[in-house]
Amino acid sequence: MSAEVSPGTDALAAAGQTRGIFPAELLDRCISCGFCLPACPTYAQSLDEASSPRGRITLMRALETGVLDDDDATLREQASYCLGCRACEPVCPAGVQYGELLEHWRSHQWQGRRRPPLARVLTNVVVRNWLVRRLGLFSRHARTATAAPQGPHLMLGCFERALFPAVSRAARRLRPELDAPGDQGCCGALHAHNGDLELGRELGRRLGEQLPGTIVTTAGGCAAHLASVLGRDRVKEFSEYAAADPATALGELRVDGRRARVALQDSCHLRNGMDVWREPRELIAAVADYVELPGAAQCCGSAGSYSLLRPRDSRRVLAPKLDQIEAAGVDYVVAVNPGCQRQLVGGLRRRRSRVRVLHLTELLAAAQDGGLPRRRLRLGLRSGRRAEVPADEPAGTAAHLNDRPLPDDPGAAAAGRPDALDGSAGPDDIR
Amino acid sequence: MALDPGVLAELGSIVGREHVRSGAGEVAPYARDATPLFSSPPDAVVFPARTAEVAAVLRLATAHRIPVVPRGAGSNLCAATVPLQGGILLVLTRMDRVLEISNEELLVRAEPGATTATVADAAAAKGLLFAPDPGSRTVSTVGGNVATCAGGLRGLKYGVTRNYVLGLEVVLPTGEVIRTGGRLWKDVAGYDLTRLMTGSEGTLGVITEVTLALLPMPATASTGVAYFSSLADAGRAVTAILGHGVVPATLEFLDRTCIGAVEDYAKLGLRSDAGALLLFGDDGEADAVERNLTRMGELCADEGALEVTVAKEVAQSEALLAARRCALPALSRLDTLTVLEDVTVPRPRLAEMVDRIDDVAARHDLVIGTFGHAGDGNLHPTAVVDVRDTEAAERTHAAFAEIFTAAIGMDGTITGEHGVGAAKLPYLRQRLGDDQMALTRRIKTAFDPAGILNPGKVGS
């Protein structure tokens, strides 16, 4: 404390010269101690204060007090470079709600022309129920005709129902009491994270009305957003829901006559936003040998739309994780969020890894069934063809849908070229 | 005052253009460190990767009379790295290698940007202990630790950073590279420039390599906790412990305000009816540790402890230490502006000082929680106020001025381990006196004739 207080953001804030972009009580929380720095994946890459949570909060304060204007290049870059993984929150001694600050930041920063066009497209697609339904039209995701008034309801997700329809089928097979009305909409997490916090919350509330009572979701990112809108007690992520009632016989997953070795990739928002991380581990350990990856809790670089908006940075975050997965000698790596699942499938496929990616529900359903079908021989066969799912195939065994090339995955097109196989060796990956 | 484009270009040619930032948004995050209320952006942020680059930057800066402020992770609590006069902020985080760990010589050599935890972990992997243990160890850099002579939770038994600095490589503001000390535990050739650099807060030279002493890793460690109805009782227990020849590795206290805040925050099951909490701990051979902990527990009970518990296992020990480590964050949650101070008094006057702080807080109508290192007499009175309440900030200012004066009156000091920086410079003369202040300035001028290094701080 000193008489020589310089006129910085604190002083301006103290004088009330603020723009009202951020709720003051959120921005005031940060004491700039820097404890978040070692937890931040983008700071680890850049070693630049500007791409650390503390530095970004200083930037937000500069925006709030008018020290920097909306068009400042660093503000724009950092609002987008941040993964939004919220790894800074559990390590924050002062309890800064960084994820919410980021949502406010992007909602301001990404207005109008400043919004990344791809983010606009993505969020526009899922804003209407009929379009969300259409996403799932050709996929065989779970659906039930009726909904019990108080649930528990299975949330189908928007992109999840199209990309990984087997996940909701597996969830329903494991927990038949879950109803899954097909006309449910998007939860709004995508909007909240991509510069439209208000619409994100509105969609969350709307989904809450469509699915009254308890909502069970297989997507960690959706769970955290819904919980922030509807209240923590109304939202259960699947592992949390399943672990709370261990009555079900789980079975065992075996590979080559031994118990399968299975690793987990945490969902950032599930872990950092909802403190759910023990449950998926316990469930995996019940059916297989659980292997903890050294960086299981760190972001895989999917980060919602991030892998599409900033593919290079996304791969740089992913590369060390792929190394860890391959070094761990596991049969499967489990995801608890569709974005992570998609990211890992793409990354491991580019490396022609033998490790397969499953959603937790798929793993558990397979254990109940007594195993997964043998992996198809894929080498040389991977054109853009869509995998056919036999009509009588049990839900839990549809995991090879993971192998379906995704149209926006550049690694899929490059597969077969030896020099393109190792995702860690590209020029993007060198710091 | 923006830098001349020619200077920026030269900086770029020294460290590489991508390692020079000068845009308004690029420099804005570097306007502050972990000190509240101090904020002033540099004109450029420069990230050197080698000693030669540091030297070239400093020569350029001296030639053009541009202020240079060296910075590690910016976790200091005295605004030592806030560039009050703009200029170049020299960030050393790219120089982050651990160069060597020697079991034979019990030392580690590292670049300044390596974090304290990185160095300590690298040493631990070889069965060695880097003893200084500042609270920000996962963030702080060893260069910053040396530049601020960082303290920590193990100060009583193990000392502070200065006790572990064997040698330094330093770039002087005029560009010369000197190596002070070295790998030797005994070396009295000339002035002890290594010690002079330690705690110089980036005002005399830029540290580009450190050689630090290590110790064999203690076999085991354990912690206990005692609750007292008042801090005076806890203070007597501290005196009794040290008077009985026990020099514990840990002897930390929390006052009533802190206990309540920590319990609300971390739910560790602390007794919130107690007036003071004393954490005591030791490390070493298992039987010695057990003996010392039992003895300390008994001495606490003799001095009227309400309750004494000794941790049964490592996890429990860790939880107890966590209570102390989270004191500051827990307090900071009480309001939006947290002003943490660092006065230190002779050990026997600890309880007296805490009483004075409570008295000052009451008279100025402030919430001040006090925690700290009982074994070192090092207190951290922490005021929490509303950042928008300018009148409360004024009261805080006045209260701490009184607290500093009280500490000096007890043969204490204005800062035990955080440093002077910009935050406590106004009180430095009170502590050092005119003659030492004048000498400090002459020393500064001898190192830095152009006055470019961290101007507006110690020695300016």
From TrEMBL, chain A:
Q: Under which name does UniProt file this protein?
A: Glycolate oxidase iron-sulfur subunit
InterPro entries in the cross-refs: 4Fe4S_Fe-S-bd (IPR017896), 4Fe4S_Fe_S_CS (IPR017900), Cys_rich_dom (IPR004017), Helical_ferredxn (IPR009051)
**Keywords recorded for this protein, A-Z:** 4Fe-4S, Iron, Iron-sulfur, Metal-binding, Repeat
The UniProt GO MF terms for this protein read:
4 iron, 4 sulfur cluster binding; metal ion binding; oxidoreductase activity
Per UniProt, residues of the 4Fe-4S ferredoxin-type domain are 21-50, 73-96
List all Low complexity biased stretches.
409-422
- PROSITE patterns xref list: 4FE4S_FER_1, 4FE4S_FER_2
Extract the PANTHER family matched here.
ANAEROBIC GLYCEROL-3-PHOSPHATE DEHYDROGENASE SUBUNIT C, GLYCOLATE OXIDASE IRON-SULFUR SUBUNIT
Q: Which Pfam families match?
A: CCG, Fer4_8
Looking at the record, which segments are called Disordered? 383-431
Automatic annotation (TrEMBL), chain B:
Q: Where is the FAD-binding PCMH-type domain?
A: 38-217
Query: What name does this protein carry?
Result: Glycolate oxidase
User: Does the entry feature the keyword Metal-binding, yes or no?
Assistant: no
Organism encoding this protein: Geodermatophilus pulveris
The cofactors named for this UniProt entry are: FAD
**One MF term from GO for this chain?**
oxidoreductase activity
Q: Name one Pfam family in it.
A: FAD-oxidase_C
Entry superkingdom: Bacteria
The coiled-coil regions, if any, are none
User: What does the sequence similarity comment in the record state about its family?
Assistant: Belongs to the FAD-binding oxidoreductase/transferase type 4 family.
Q: Which InterPro entries match?
A: FAD-bd_oxidored_4_C, FAD-bd_PCMH, FAD-bd_PCMH-like_sf, FAD-bd_PCMH_sub2, FAD-linked_Oxase-like_C, FAD-linked_OxidoTrans_Type4, Oxid_FAD_bind_N, Vanillyl_alc_oxidase_C-sub2
